[in-house]
Fold this protein.
Amino acid sequence: MLTDLPNILTLLRIASIPVLVALLSVHSPTANVIACVVYTAACITDYLDGALARRWHQLSELGRMMDPIADKLLVGSLLLALAGLTQLPVFSLYAGIIIMVREILVSGLREYMASQRETLPSTRLAKWKTGIQMVAIGFLIGGDGAARILGLSFLPATLIGGILLWFSVIPTVISGWGYLTAGLARIMAGQSRKSSKISF
């Protein structure tokens, strides 16, 4: 149900997006620190909603659908905001484009497969991909200004975020290719089953 705590946590992750974008738009190191706190809390809900759903036996189709959508909305919105605010270093804008293209393709594939009554389960590599992306975006949100406020002026946070975002492209592409091949195989198998029933 929508009122189950795991689903509420997922909705809170989505609700954090406009708050984060607004804080980034302030262009202030202090606002960036606050954004980091809000973002960290949002990332924690990504772990908690699934863990609590399994522990309390509150797994549902609604939660299974909403969880990856919340992740994609959070990552995609923040990548767009960071790109618009020119806070993506080391040409990581192109890494963000690759990530967005992959997410749109996989989402479209999932939607088509759902219309064919087929499913595409999430993989461990995809979870690693999301984790690396979230860490990278955390560094990019804080940036060097937040690092200075926190007494970590020696830490090139923006550069680290950009490099990590590029690093996340590896599991992003590999897992996306895996979803594509698995999805096409299931679609073809489903069509073969339908053809055999018709011929019979």
Q: What stands out?
A: The helical segments are 5-25, 29-55, 61-84, 92-115, 124-149, 157-199. Residues 126 and 175 are 6 Å apart (CA to CA). The two ends are 42 Å apart (CA to CA).
